[in-house]
Structures are given as structure tokens and as C-alpha cells.
Write a structure and sequence with these properties.
With 386 residues, this protein is of the alpha+beta class. The chain is 48% helix and 14% strand. Helix 4 (71-81) packs across helix 7 (229-265), helix 8 packs antiparallel against helix 9 and helix 9 (310-339) packs across helix 10 (349-356).
Length: 386
């Protein structure tokens, strides 16, 4: 049940699959049973191999040393990476195309922050969400003008991978109420982690809360113009929503494969589990929904590569994330049920996926937010223009 990718895309996807199976999946259970921690030398090897493969610069422009890959090729890679639990596939930083556009007029920013993402010498995190954020983006963090730059004060919640990062992409409001995006070093004076809560999943990447208390940020660390911060954040959201959806394809594929293998060799009162109608219906529904999600994901990627209308792309990214994440959650529930009590063991990949894919219906815009985006696009643009 493969998409008919080009030969070059299939070759690339096979290379990523090999990396996933040889370098990442063998360490899942160790990570799960040790609070996400694996030996440092193993973690470093994962990053080296990921960077050597080119995963950190898939989306970066060729003129800056990136691979400039099509979105189809990028999502083909993320589909394979989605087969891994415990966020071990987050073993590399990611320099995205929009970052270079945003920093186009600052060679300093490209050299200081973006190039190191490609070679793995620095890691990034995104400080956007705040305590009041919910159905609508809320930004109360202030960036007050001061001599030489800005003084930033506020709190950011759920700053994913911040415990491993070197700098933030931080969104704040300037004195005139404009959204702006900044590079902020994580060890800057006035930056403090005030909470690092435990979550349902077992990831080496945490989601802490940070306080910014009059943190000085030089003007040269402002990304683009004041007022452009939300535009950049939307670019990031579109990219993340597509890659999340692609990861859901990989997660669902692995769960279906493992559940099918289990049901094919599990006997109950002399009959194989897979020969029962209940099992067949469960697997059939899962495969059908996976196929539908694949078609959506790669059509949205093709629309990106064609340069389709940006507002249409925005709505399509929401549709893709909505359907793919909810699909993966349904598949996780069905597959875990097929395993019975064995499916509830933490050394079972389906059990880990069951906990892990749940958050994908929340972050980078919850399912409810995606429905609002989609409905608003329908109201404003009509079905044919979506």
C-alpha cells in the first residue's frame, strides 16, 4: 500500500528506513524503561548519522548548503521517522526554509543560528505557547524597546526540547503591540526554567515552562520586521502540521504491521485471531483510514511543491493534521485491543504509541483549532478555493 513516489523519492525513503531500523528502533525499550535516557554515546551516534544522512537540512535552501528537498521527499522521510517511539527520531535539529527567508537580510543570524542547526552544533526550541493560550493564540510576553535592543519579560509554556536546546525562537509583543520573533540564547541572563512537568510519554525531550525576566536581546537578534512574528509562526505551524501528519502515517503503519503479525500467530481455542471477523474488521478499518490519510498527506505536500495559494495550503495543512492524528489514535486503540493484556505492556510498541500519538491531537494546534481553521476557510473562500 505504497504511494507511487518517484524512483529518487523511494531511494531516499529506503535510506531513512534503514537508519530508523538500525539506529533508532533498537533503543526504544531502553529509553522507555529509563525515563527516555539512553547512553550518551548512542545518542551522539544517532545525531551524527542523522546529520550525515542530511536530515537536519532537508528543507534548507541549497544556496546555504541545504538539500532544498521537495516537501514530498521530506514527508517521505518523516513517514519513516514516525515508525519510532520515544521521540528518538528527534535526534537532530532542523533548519527550515522559512527561517532563511526570515533571516535573509542578516548574514549574522544565518551564520550564528541557522548554519549550526544544519551541522548539529546547536539545537533549537520554540517558545510560543503561554499559560492563557487556548482556542486562540495569546501572546502576553513583552519585548520593550531599550538601548541596543529589547527587554523581554513573560512566561512560555510547553517549550518542547528546551532541555536539550541552545536557543529559543521566541514570540513576543513589542511596545506598539506588534508580534515579533526573536533569537534568545537559553543561557541568557534572566532566563529561568520554573517547571519541568512529567508527561504521559517517555521522551528525552522535555516540555518545560520558562520565565523571562527583563532578558536583554540585541536588536540584531530580532527576526525580520516587527509585526512579522505571526507570519513566521504560521510558516512554522504549516511545516509542523505536515510533518506531524507524516509521522502519523509511519506510526499507524508500524502498529498495523505488528498487530497483523501478532493476530496471525496468536491462537485462541484452536483458531487464529486474525480469522475472526472482529479482528478482520478492526484491521480493515485501520488500513482503509491509513490509505486515506496517505493520499491526503502527499497531495498536500504536492500542493506545497506546486506553490499553490498559501491560504489554501494553510487550510489543507489543518485538514491533514486533523485527519491523520485522529486516524493514528483510532488505529492505536484498535491495535492495542487486539494485543489484549500484552498490549498494555510498556515494552510493546503499540502501548507506547497509544500514549504518544495522543498529544499530536493537541500540540501545533488541537483538533478543535484545526476544525475552526477549516470552517473559517470554507466560509471565506468556498469549497473550490480550499
Amino acid at each position: 500500500m505504497d504511494i507511487q513516489h518517484s524512483q529518487s523519492t523511494r531511494k531516499w525513503q529506503q535510506q531513512v528506513r534503514q537508519f530508523v531500523e538500525q539506529d533508532l528502533i533498537p533503543w526504544e525499550v531502553e529509553a522507555e524503561l529509563n525515563n527516555g535516557v539512553i547512553p550518551q554515546e548512542v545518542s551522539e551516534k544517532m545525531q551524527r548519522n542523522a546529520i550525515a544522512l542530511g536530515l537536519s537540512k532537508m528543507d534548507a535552501p541549497t544556496e546555504h548548503g541545504g538539500l532544498g528537498m521537495s516537501m514530498v521527499d521530506q514527508l517521505a522521510a518523516w513517514e519513516e521517522l514516525g515508525r519510532v517511539t520515544n521521540a528518538l527520531c528527534w535526534c537532530f535539529p532542523e533548519a527550515q526554509h522559512w527561517m532563511f527567508e526570515a533571516c535573509a537580510h542578516s548574514e549574522y543570524q544565518i551564520n550564528r543560528f541557522l548554519q549550526p542547526l544544519m551541522d548539529g552544533s546547536l539545537r533549537e526550541c520554540y517558545a510560543i505557547t503561554e499559560a492563557e493560550s487556548g482556542s486562540h493564540e495569546v501572546v502576553n510576553t513583552k519585548a520593550s524597546t531599550c538601548e541596543g535592543g529589547y527587554s523581554i519579560s513573560g512566561e512560555k509554556w510547553f517549550v518542547t526540547t528546551a532541555n536539550l536546546a541552545d536557543f529559543f525562537f521566541l514570540q513576543a509583543k513589542t511596545d506598539n503591540g506588534e508580534d515579533a520573533l526573536f533569537f534568545v540564547d537559553i543561557d541568557a541572563q534572566g532566563v529561568s526554567m520554573i517547571e519541568n512537568p512529567a508527561f504521559s510519554h517517555t521522551f528525552p525531550s522535555h516540555h518545560p515552562t520558562y520565565k523571562f525576566d527583563n532578558v536583554f536581546v540585541p536588536e540584531k537578534n530580532r527576526i525580520g520586521d516587527e509585526g512579522a512574528g505571526m507570519d513566521y509562526s504560521r510558516s512554522w505551524f504549516r511545516h509542523e502540521r505536515l510533518t506531524i501528519a507524516a509521522r502519523m502515517l509511519g506510526a499507524a503503519s508500524r502498529m498495523i504491521e505488528e498487530a497483523t503479525e501478532w493476530a496471525s500467530q496468536r491462537k485462541i481455542q484452536g483458531d487464529y485471531l486474525i480469522d475472526t471477523q472482529a479482528t478482520q474488521f478492526s484491521l480493515a478499518d485501520s488500513v482503509t483510514e491509513l490509505w486515506a490519510a496517505k493520499l491526503m498527506v502527499y497531495e498536500a505536500a504536492a500542493a506545497h511543491d506546486r506553490g499553490d495559494d498559501l491560504k489554501s495550503q494553510h487550510a489543507q495543512c489543518s485538514m491533514v493534521k486533523l485527519y491523520a492524528t485522529e486516524m493514528a489514535n483510532r488505529v492505536a486503540d484498535r491495535c492495542l485491543q487486539l494485543w489484549g493484556g500484552r498490549g498494555y505492556r510498556r515494552d510493546n510498541a503499540v502501548e507506547r504509541f497509544y500514549r504518544e500519538v495522543r498529544v499530536d491531537r493537541i500540540w501545533e494546534g488541537s483538533s478543535e483549532i484545526q476544525r475552526m481553521v477549516i470552517a473559517n476557510a470554507l466560509r471565506k473562500r468556498g469549497l473550490k478555493e480550499m
